[in-house]
Known about the structure:
By secondary structure, the protein is an alpha/beta fold. The chain has helices at residues 2-18, 21-27, 80-89, 100-113, 175-182, 189-195, 233-242, 271-274, 277-285, 294-302, 317-330, 343-358, 386-397, and strands at residues 39-43, 57-61, 69-71, 77-78, 197-199, 212-217, 223-229, 254-256, 288-291, 307-309, 334-337, 362-365.
Amino acid sequence: MNGPNRGYITGVDELIERTSVEQVLTHYGRPLPDQTTGEHRMPCVFDESCIDSTYGTLTVNLSDPAHRIYCHSCGVRGNLLTLIHGLQYHTPPSGGRLRGDEFKSAVTVLRSINGNTDDSPPPRQPQSSAPAADHTNTSPADPPPENIPLKDQEKTLALVNLWEDCIMDVAEMSPPAAAYFRQRPWLTPDVCRKWKMGYLPRDERSLMRGMIVYAHQNEAGDILSYSGRNIRFDEQWQQWLADGRPEKKRPIKHKYVKGYHKGLQLYGEQADRLADRRLKESLGKLGLVVVEGQNDVIRLDCLGVAAVGLCSNKASDEQIDKLERIARQAAQGRVVLIPDNDAEGEAGFKELLWSLASRGLTVRLGWSRQSHSGQFDGQQPEHLTDEQWNESILPLLR
């Protein structure tokens, strides 16, 4: 009994060793590495929240078949079979390791990549280079991913007005939450109500209790989902850096509801908002402004600027399509990019600039780490003061 089992495993090991990462990525329609040795970085295929991490990319070792992958954010590591499992199902292995049916399924795909046996499933449909969290693989039998309004789902109907449970008055908040809002004085109660966001107390029955909660709406204004922002993230991040970046203690900045495809939406895309007279004037003079996060959109809105957010530093194909449509319809095909002024924001928005410019749009940068004599290096749009916007940024965009 032991003999055949050892032979089977050995066969799989040999198959793993002779199968290249390029073959696997080609099978799933993913971008290929630029090199054949060393490390390749790609969006994490196991946990959608990893995209919000500074260190959330998946490291793929092109030189070591036994230890192919490791994600610095969710901690998943393994060989080529683990990577196949993530590309196929977008979840980590149950219990941390491939066993049973999960192992057999990955082996079946591995064999398919090396010759398509009779019992092998067909290759998955090609994907774009956008993060896997926002692009679920589909087959002819599966409908494309979509975000259904909470009001149209019986199991989520009670969550539609979750934002009404949020505290919007600083005087009623916990000390950490109050400090967060005082650092952003433009987040007034009126602004919070307009954006359906605020601090959700810890005694609420929600996975996002104790967080800053944001409603995510579609163009019609329907609430699709909520996300939460860790109010202690900034101090936790600094402590994590001081501790030497321990892998298991890395703080999480944003939490999204499982099943919400944030890559299908733009934060602030509501049609009635963009049709507001004040923002129509901004669209006419500057164009459509694109930023990363929710606070960035809200802050620029307070400044009278028509901005939408990716909720990421990378844009999906669907988001790029939507940006092009809105820019052509409302802003004469003009777009202004204002990323977070860090390495990750710069890298992601370089790709976005190229994609939008390739579609014939007029694209400008609102700032960079080097512009304005380096004045805004490391800064985010939400940090902009009225004076900085009106005297430094705006004059160069007119």
